[in-house]
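Complex record, two chains
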Amino acid sequence: MPPFTFTIEAECPGSWARAGMVQTPHGAIQTPIFMPVGTQASVKSVSSEELHEAGAQIILANTYHLMLRPGSSLIHEFGGLHSFMHWDGPILTDSGGFQVFSLGHLRKLSEDGAAFRSHLDGSPHMLTPESVMQIEAELGADIILPLDICAAFPCLPEEAKEAMQRTHRWAERALTAKALYRPEQTLFGIVQGAFEPELRQESARYIGNLPFPGLSIGGLSVGEPKESMWEMLRCVTPELPRGKPRHLLGVGSPEDLVIAVGLGMDMFDCALPTRVARHGALFTHSGRVNIKSARFRDERGPVEEGCDCYTCRNYSAAYVHHLLRAGEQLYYRLGSIHNIRFMLRLAGDLRAAIIAGSYIAFRDDFLARYIPASEKVRDEQREKWRAARLR
RNA sequence: GUGACCGUAGCUCAAUCGGCAGAGCUCUGGAUUGUGGCUCCAGUGGUUGUGGGUUCAAGCCCCAUCGGUCACC
């Protein structure tokens, strides 16, 4: 098995963008990369074979969900996540820290760890930096994350500092617990610091200097304005060691990906593309479209002209529209595949642009064409209200 | 054929003693960022079956008519 390595292949002048290659025991990952989210060992409605066909190189699964159901020991009995879900590429598992805060009922934090009640049956559970390592060892992902604390937005500076400092102490405990996870697994460190520039810088330096082969940026995309997120990344990136891959947790939308790559991020995971797909929002290069809209009722062409995804190669937009309207299961699969393929193609295009030295031009061109639907409609609605007020 | 009950938004139904015709769903648009197939926000939509009458005022009262449901012949 090859050890974990990260090689930078190209950097783009005028930005912090870089293209690289991550080696894992289950294969290589070309960065920048988008990682589809398979919370419960499944990217909802999409099979492992379909993920592979869509160009997925690495996927993400959730420790929190899998420890509650079916349980990490059962997955261990089946030879780990790779064989359990029949995915032989790289896998990254989240620590469960975020879900304890967003899903767990009656959570209680202490220096030891996080106590919470299951969202499934209310049963009490306890996660500690050490127990998370054991659980992730049983799940057997290639890249694993330590237990961290994601501060709420907004939060007081003191709370942000306390959460960051405890995250740092837990990071050290996770490193010390190296015997609990498998030698072929790679533990990433998590940078916190909420929305305090000094804390972000401190956390980036602290976590960046610990012996983690890779780094995840946590605590962002939790409801803050976009500009706050970019500001935090601008604080963090200069403090990070150049030679370690950087994973931006929970991001994001197509436009987020394009911008964050320029701020030095290499890996992304996000539920957004598949979640919004299930509700009809499909990505195209001119922005998000709602496939449920009546205008697709008789659209003979694909969802996006020129898209090479399974859905667009084989089905008309009218058919996809019909499946959603009719509540057919197949819709979830076709819609999800389209958005996953869009994100992966976008990551590939970004990579090619970086290697060609034209990231800036690519970014500006993409953002000029990709107008978020929300902005378009927000403007239209604003106009409508203004007209109504004048009447 | 006789009798009773019911006709209000695309659907299911509210509307006090006769006093500005409303809600849920659908529909249209939006939101969703380390996924609870969840949830939230906004908007369109009406000749109250039809025709008369009473009244300052009718979805509501009266008459006729059309349609539906049920019961009994």
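Note: Chain A has two domains: 5-270, 277-388.
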